[in-house]
Design goal:
By secondary structure, the chain is of the alpha+beta class. It folds into 3 domains: 4-184, no CATH class; 196-263, Up-down Bundle (Single alpha-helices involved in coiled-coils or other helix-helix interfaces), CATH 1.20.5; 272-393, Histidine kinase-like ATPase, C-terminal domain (Heat Shock Protein 90), CATH 3.30.565. The chain is 64% helix and 12% strand. It is built from 10 helices and 7 strands. The chain has helices at 4-21, 28-55, 71-83, 86-118, 145-230, 235-263, 266-271, 273-283, 300-319, 361-371, and strands at residues 128-131, 135-138, 288-293, 326-336, 339-348, 375-379, 386-393. A 5-stranded mixed β-sheet has the order 3-4-5-7-6, covered by helices on one side. A two-stranded antiparallel ribbon has the order 1-2. Helix 1 packs antiparallel against helix 2 (28-55). It is elongated, with a radius of gyration of 36 Å.
């Protein structure tokens, strides 16, 4: 760092001076300064990775903040956001400090070597020897230079410990801040996903009640009213109307059961994810190859998220993709040490083209998976096939 850091700082300083000097020369200076910004960001990324690897600091990599708006204005805002990135400047400050300490350490090591060589002065015929800073000492006093060599060695070792202490404090602090920010961002995303999932689910329930069960129950009431009017004059017709109302009532009950099953499958609580998915596969209009290999039960939120994602994937395969078969695979994966994940994949041989539309079924399960802290990936090119993959953290 004493050599490379000093050269790097000199080059960046020269580039900044050149950019400022040419800023009014057809905008060339602005391009130079823009390149300096990218170079500084890359240098900060390198410094964080270097300290994290050298001292085993659990630091997240420095990532470029993307633009949030399209167009040139969005690009400028993105540049400003990255220019004001606190972690970047903290890492650059650590790089500068490490370069200064490295330069001092180089001087200490050179002085140490010089003092060791000078200490052998009595073995020569010279009456005096030269030590750092041009000081002359007699050959008889030269062996005492070994003490100064030890002092220089102690300075070098002390600089190493000083660098470790300062670097881990700076990079570690930014790592903790980054971790907290990531936790806040993740919590915010999960909360928003839960709110959207609840809204989509409420809209679906309202739509199913309004378009299905409600008019059917109204029809049952009207049919029973007609039967009541004709029960004295035309008993046979009244009986026929009662039978019709009875059939409609059973259909309404079936629709209500399907509606409640869409809110939460009670078989999940009773028998677990394997049995619930077996029931879904059994009701599917297309053949389903179900492959579930799980060591045990998991928390309700994780199982529900995976269950509804698979159920929606099979529903889309049967209704929209015109698939003739589907395959479901469910496993437990350890994507992070000590933190198991429920992983599932639904594949079909349909026409593809599935998209996440606001308020649609895929939008609902996406929000549900995000609210559970998981991820979802949908690969459905035009012409097929379609693959839906979810991964949800779980507790067994």
């Amino acid at each position: 760092m004493g050599t490379v850091g000093t050269v790097t700082i000199g080059l960046i300083s020269a580039a900044i001076s050149a950019g400022l000097g040419m800023i009014f020369l057809l905008g060339i200076g602005l391009l130079v300064l823009l390149g300096v910004l990218y170079a500084l960001f890359g240098l900060a990324w390198f410094e964080i990775e270097r300290i994290a690897y050298l001292y085993h600091v659990p630091a997240h990599s420095l990532t470029w903040r993307p633009r949030l708006q399209p167009g040139f204005v969005g690009y400028l805002k993105s540049l400003w956001s990255n220019l004001a990135h606190g972690r970047m400047w903290a890492a650059l400050g650590n790089f500068l400090l490490a370069s200064i300490l490295g330069a001092v350490m180089l001087g200490a090591i050179q002085a140490m070597v010089h003092f060791i060589v000078v200490s052998f002065g009595p073995l020569t015929d010279a009456e005096s020897v030269s030590i750092p800073f041009g000081i002359q000492v007699s050959s008889a006093q030269a062996p005492w230079m070994l003490l100064l060599a030890l002092v220089c060695a102690a300075i070098a070792v002390g600089l190493m410990f000083l660098h470790r202490t300062i670097s881990t404090a700076i990079i570690g602090a930014t790592a903790r801040e980054s971790h907290l920010n990531e936790q806040v961002r993740t919590t915010t995303v999960q909360r928003e996903g839960a709110m959207r999932a609840a809204e989509v689910e409420r809209t679906r329930i309202e739509r199913d009640l309004h378009d299905g069960v409600q008019p059917r129950l109204v029809s049952v009431g009207m049919t029973l009213g007609l039967a009541k009017q004709q029960i004295d004059d035309d008993p046979e017709q009244a009986k026929s109307l009662v039978d019709e109302a009875h059939t409609s009532t059973k259909t309404a009950i079936t629709e209500l059961r399907q509606l409640t099953r869409g809110i939460y499958a009670s078989v999940l609580d009773d028998r677990g994810l394997d049995a619930a998915l077996s029931a879904v596969a059994g009701r599917s209009h297309i053949p389903v190859n179900l492959d579930v290999r799980l060591p045990g039960r998991y928390d309700r939120t994780s199982e529900a998220a995976v269950y509804f994602a698979i159920a929606e994937g099979l529903t889309n395969a049967a209704k929209h993709s015109r698939a003739s078969e589907a395959r479901v695979t469910v496993r437990q994966r350890d994507e992070e040490p000590g933190r198991p994940y429920l992983w599932a994949r639904v594949e079909d041989n349909g026409a593809g083209g599935a998209k996440v539309l606001p308020g649609g079924g895929l939008d609902g399960i996406t929000n549900r998976v995000v609210a559970a802290g998981g991820t979802i990936k949908i690969d459905s090119p035009t012409g097929g096939p379609t693959a839906l993959e979810v991964s949800v953290p779980c507790a067994s």
